[in-house]
Write a structure and sequence with these properties.
Rossmann fold, Hypothetical Protein, Haloacid Dehalogenase-like Hydrolase, Chain: A, domain 2, five-stranded antiparallel beta sheet, 2 domains
Length: about 260
């Protein structure tokens, strides 16, 4: 039987748990350690997939994740939920990209990342993420379930929104747009976790800074925005803590009385 935590805190990753140099501040590591001593569960809630961030989870002491904007959920290493995109739908959007926009794409699941083609757009994105360029495999979705796609572009996603109403499009970096099933979001994945583990009565908190945190902020009991957050998050936040480079996580948790 899983021990019921006193509370759960969901942490966005880029711009929130991570500093600008893509590391976890020592103050954040210490704060998470104290959370766990207080029987408060830390959980990542990120656009990234679990295998991308295993080193960050190990460094921070976090063993649970709502990944790919809620499309894949693991709790203490147990796989709880995946929201796969239909193969025919991937075929359609890939064909549209090749024939109408020439925007390259990336394919994501819990185990791998592949890109549709080598491109300058892909180089820009993975340099920005400080990750190696993934292998090229335009047919990977025929062999592997895919939970998230990326448009590798700095603009041009608007026409996709009109063409594919069954999908959700969220710009997550200056160089890509995340794509997943309609209705999917960090909030969707969080709800699946809470239902699966019978944690619906556990108080929930969330820290975030970006557009893909909006639904999560509307779901949890206590949404906290980082000092570096985008403007749309500010009116949704209970308060705004310091930025991700100046102990925003530790200071916010202190202010909440969780540590």
């Amino acid at each position: 039987m899983i021990n019921k935590p006193e509370a759960i805190v969901f942490f966005d990753l880029d711009g929130t748990l991570l500093t600008s140099d893509v590391t976890v501040a020592q103050s954040t590591i210490d704060a998470i350690c104290q959370l766990k001593k207080n029987n408060i569960k830390p959980v990542l809630a990120t656009g990234r997939t679990i295998f991308e961030v295993k080193h960050i989870m190990a460094q921070s002491g976090i063993d649970s994740i709502v990944g790919m904007n809620g499309q894949s959920v693991f709790y203490q290493g147990e796989h709880i939920f995946s929201n796969n995109i239909d193969i025919d739908l991937i075929e359609r959007i890939l064909s549209y990209s090749k024939t109408q926009t020439q925007i390259p794409m990336a394919f994501y699941n819990d185990k791998l990342i592949r890109i549709s083609e080598f491109s300058h757009a892909a180089v820009l994105l993975y340099q920005y993420l400080k990750q190696p360029l993934p292998p090229t495999d335009i047919n990977v979705f025929h062999q592997q379930p895919i939970q998230m796609l990326l448009l590798l572009c700095e603009s041009g996603e608007g026409q996709y929104v009109e063409q594919f109403p069954e999908l959700t499009f969220v710009r997550n970096t200056p160089y890509c747009v995340d794509i997943f099933n309609k209705g999917g979001s960090k909030a969707f994945g969080i709800q699946k976790l809470l239902e699966n583990k019978q944690f619906l009565d556990v108080p929930t908190y969330a820290f975030g800074d970006g557009l893909n945190d909006i639904e999560m902020f509307k779901l949890v009991d206590h949404p906290i925005a980082m000092g570096n957050c985008l403007a749309p998050l500010k009116p949704l936040a209970e308060f705004i803590t310091d930025d991700n480079n100046h102990d925003g996580i530790a200071n916010g948790l202190n202010r909440l009385g969780l540590i």
